[in-house]
Amino acid sequence: MSDTTKTELLQQGLAAARVGDLEDARRLLMQATEQMPDNVEVWLGLAGVVESLAEKQECFQKVLALDPNNGEAKAGLALVEQKLAALAAEQSTDGTRTTSEEAPDSQTESGVTVCYRHPQTETGLRCNRCNKPICPKCAHRTPVGFRCPDCIREQENKYYTGGNLDYVIAAVIAFPLSLIVAALFTFILGGFGFFTLIIGFVAAPFAAGIIAETVRWAVGRRRSRYLRHIVAGALILATAPFILLLLLNGNIWALLGPGLFAFLGATTVLARLR
């Protein structure tokens, strides 16, 4: 089997898990482990879809045998072993579970549990970092498997270093710059007729790119979760009065200038400030 085919087998298994087809996901990922026994991603993916804690433990142990420093496998194995130890201790004193708090663990061992965000949705899929049960709607696919929204946000918070002041700085800079550019697109570029369309496709992303980079410089190149949305919103807000003015005057053809700037400019900003 070629490397491309093996990779497709892995991707198909992860895709099946993503949409909640856990039976097919287990089948595909088991095949992938046979074809790629030294692939860490395969074992991490399988750990997220197997039913029993013992199987999860085996998968995480396989990962650590291949990559002893793998943080995802260490965290997953620690949680699984903690649950197994608790289960063994309870079974040694009482063969049945008697409290409502213990019922979810019994369901977990049998592979039937519910999403921690959607208690009405049964699932066998788990976050490969914190081991919380997640339904397909909550699962975020990453290069190392599926993760819950909480773990994704925790990772993103480490990536975003900006504060609320950066949003103010971004708005103060982006709005007047966008206002100037929107005026140029309306009163100068709009007079080029059909060529407005051609020039606008080049000029709008270029101008928006300058605005985005100016904001990036002003905030010290810090990243914030909603920075790009603030800048894109300021750009659209600055362009809106010119579009409204042209609509009131019935000058539809001239709408090409500010319209292109609003659409292509916002798109460019969202891409540049990711």
Features:
single chain, 274 residues, mainly alpha, Serine Threonine Protein Phosphatase 5, Tetratricopeptide repeat, 2 domains, two-stranded antiparallel sheet, 4% strand, elongated
Structure explained in plain terms:
The protein is mainly α. The protein folds into two domains: 3-157, Tetratricopeptide repeat domain (Serine Threonine Protein Phosphatase 5, Tetratricopeptide repeat); 160-272, no CATH class. Helix content is 66%, strand content 4%. It is built from eleven helices and four strands. The strands form two sheets. Strands 1-2 form a two-stranded antiparallel ribbon. A two-stranded antiparallel ribbon has the order 3-4. Strand 3 and strand 4 (145-147) form a beta hairpin. The longest helix is centred in the middle third of the chain and has 24 residues, at 164-187. The chain is elongated, with a radius of gyration of 26 Å. The two termini are 38 Å apart. Mean pLDDT is 81; it is low at 96-112.
Layout: helices, strands, pairs:
Elements: H1 3-18, H2 22-35, H3 40-47, H4 53-66, H5 71-93, H6 103-109, E1 113-114, E2 122-123, E3 140-142, E4 145-147, H7 149-159, H8 164-187, H9 195-218, H10 227-249, H11 256-272
Antiparallel strand pairs: 1-2, 3-4
Helix pairs in contact: 1-2, 2-3, 3-4, 4-5, 8-9, 8-10, 8-11, 9-11, 10-11
